[in-house]
Amino acid sequence: MSVVAALNTYMAATDSRDKMIKGAGCFFKMMGAINGNSNFMKTGAAMSDARCIMRMLSWLGNVQKISDAMEKRVVQLRDVLFVLRVLFDGIFSLLDNIVFAGRFFDNNSPTLAQMSHVSRASLFYGYAMAVMLDIYDLVRDPNMPKRGDRCLVLTRNTCDMVSAIGNVCAVDIGAANVAGLGLISAIIATREQLIAAAAKSGGSCVGASPVKAAALQPKK
What we know:
Blueprint: H1 2-12, H2 14-35, H3 38-54, H4 59-70, H5 77-102, H6 110-140, H7 147-163, H8 175-200, H9 210-215
Helix pairs in contact: 1-8, 2-3, 2-8, 4-5, 5-6, 6-7, 7-8
């Protein structure tokens, strides 16, 4: 029953479903890019739209995180990296919501195009801050518990950052590579969330949740 409870907990989390759909969407996009099958690409695009709907108003959580972080009296480098990571992620989420909704009213609006550009750039910089935060924690704490799990978090964020590099420069790594990196990221994230779900439901799991481990690292 612990497996069923863990799966129920996993499926109940919006982020878990989001990453599951992300993985499926990236798989179809990768197959479409490799085989030149437009139906696969359309399926992947539809899953991206589904994720946009699921992420509606998710930026409100970023506002709360920034508010909590700003209450700290002693600000260190890690705090700055954390705030920047949450800020860029929040900007992406907010503008992504606006652009997605705006497409149904005026898809050719120059304002929407500009917002989309800023949103995608913020996505890249958010991942870049996440990578820097992971590296900072790994360097500052060589004896970090579950260090291997945190290295996987770094790998996930690096995959996301590289896949989004085309958002801020003219580098084109290819649609298949972008989708492949997204698929790797989604697989790692799904592993993290399954571990977290097992721990939350009282089931046995190997190690603590890497997601929580990343968030609860000592503020050195």
